[in-house]
Design goal:
It contains eleven helices and seven strands. The protein has helices spanning 2-6, 51-65, 84-94, 109-119, 139-148, 164-181, 197-202, 213-219, 244-262, 266-293, 302-334, and strands spanning 41-47, 71-77, 98-102, 124-127, 152-157, 193-196, 224-229. It has a seven-stranded mixed β-sheet with strand order 3-2-1-4-6-5-7, sandwiched between helices. The longest helix has 33 residues, at 302-334. The chain is elongated. Mean pLDDT is 87; it is low at 1-35. Bound molecules: uridine-5'-diphosphate (UDP) and magnesium ion.
Length: 347
């Protein structure tokens, strides 16, 4: 935040003067700052202890975009314990198009990206990893796709240079994701992605669900596609993640399937399950009741307990459905016109 405020356009005044309200309020205040070209593209780079690679990365991003588009590079220091922040500060001093955000501690890539999205001022957001595994030379391809009219562009590492075990698990994971979400991408999890600003504005991401933005986006009617990208082996340090990420990914996938299909109509899921369970329970008890009237003993029948449990479970599911609908209703009241999934309009 401090770095953000200090970014005045080569100011005659001391840098502490927040020119034009600072760049904090996401683009809107930019028009008030004469002489500053608002960036068209925001390259957002989350980094944890990536001091070694940032200078080269920045140089290569400049090389790739300089003179082509107005852009900013937004480094998010996710609580690094090395010199990452010093490097970012220096890179900003060398070129004011480099901006930085530093989180209070290590919150994980998801939070780092959220901070980046929140501060980014461009109309096109591109996220890439800080470790030089993604190649800045591919940036123009993302921009071109979005300018063609696509809303989300996902990098596809055609030749992926990661350890073997990662590759196998990733393939299984991606296959499952494709089938579960119906979004045909080679690698939804790729950190190299481009978005039209509007996509990020209209999809709430929390936890690790950012990996699935393309699935949410496709569900919301945005156009999603992929571009082939180059991939390099990690130059400095080791991957910040282990295999447990894949496991967690499967839980996230469950959430994504639920949220995309049922977030606006939870009763359709819970009601159906409740009806089936409760219905089977009711029929079971009905059958036992008939037997009882015919003089049979039913007190020691296991079916009696089963039926009662099924009815209870059914009621539970119904109640969850009602709570879900209630939450959806409350939320819907807050939706303003800008959040409607409209692509074009004639007025
Ligand atoms: N990263 C981060 N916070 C974390 C973990 C990772 O900002 O808690 C960044 C990391 O610095 C890198 C990107 O996320 O820029 C991807 O991480 P990594 O290269 O370790 O993952 P891999 O390429 O092995 O999937
Ligand atoms: Mg990496």
């Amino acid at each position: 935040m401090t770095a953000q405020e200090a970014i005045a356009p080569a100011p005659p005044a001391p840098p502490s003067t927040p020119t034009a309200g600072g760049a904090r309020s996401r683009g809107v205040s930019l028009r008030a700052a004469p002489g500053v070209e608002p960036p068209e593209v925001s390259v957002i780079v989350p980094g944890l202890n990536e001091a070694d690679s940032l200078a080269e990365l920045a140089r290569r991003i400049h090389l790739s975009l300089d003179g082509k588009r107005a852009y900013e590079i937004l480094f998010v220091d996710d609580g690094s314990t090395d010199h990452t922040w010093e490097v970012i500060t220096r890179l900003h001093a060398e070129d004011a198009r480099v901006k930085g955000v530093k989180l209070r501690r290590n919150f994980g890539k998801a939070m780092a990206l959220s901070a980046g999205f929140q501060r980014a001022r461009g109309e096109i957001f591109i996220t890439m990893d800080a470790d030089l595994q993604d190649d800045p030379a591919d940036l123009p391809a993302f921009i071109a796709k979005i300018e063609e009219g696509l809303d989300v562009v996902v990098g596809w590492k055609v030749e992926r240079l990661d350890p073997q075990n990662r590759l196998v698990l990733s393939r299984i994971f991606n296959g499952t994701v494709r089938r579960a979400t119906g979004v045909k991408l080679h690698d939804m999890n790729c950190g190299f992605k481009g978005y039209r600003r509007e996509v990020i504005r209209s999809i709430p991401v929390y936890g690790d669900l950012f990996r699935f933005i393309p699935a949410f986006a496709a569900w919301e009617g945005f156009r999603v596609a992929e571009v082939p990208v180059k991939h390099h082996a990690r130059k400095y340090g080791k991957s910040r993640y282990g295999l447990e990420r894949i496991l967690r990914g499967f839980f996230d996938l469950l959430s994504v399937m639920f949220l995309t299909r049922f977030q606006r109509k939870p009763m359709h899921l819970f009601g159906l399950v409740g009806l089936v369970l409760g219905g089977v329970g009711f029929l079971t008890e009905l059958y036992l009741t008939v037997l009882w009237f015919r003089g049979h003993k039913i007190g020691d029948r296991p079916l009696l307990l089963l039926g009662a449990l099924l009815i209870l479970a059914g009621i539970q599911f119904f109640s969850m459905g009602f709570i879900g609908e209630f939450l959806t209703y409350q939320n819907h009241k807050k939706v303003d016109a800008e959040d409607l999934p409209i692509r074009e309009e004639i007025t």
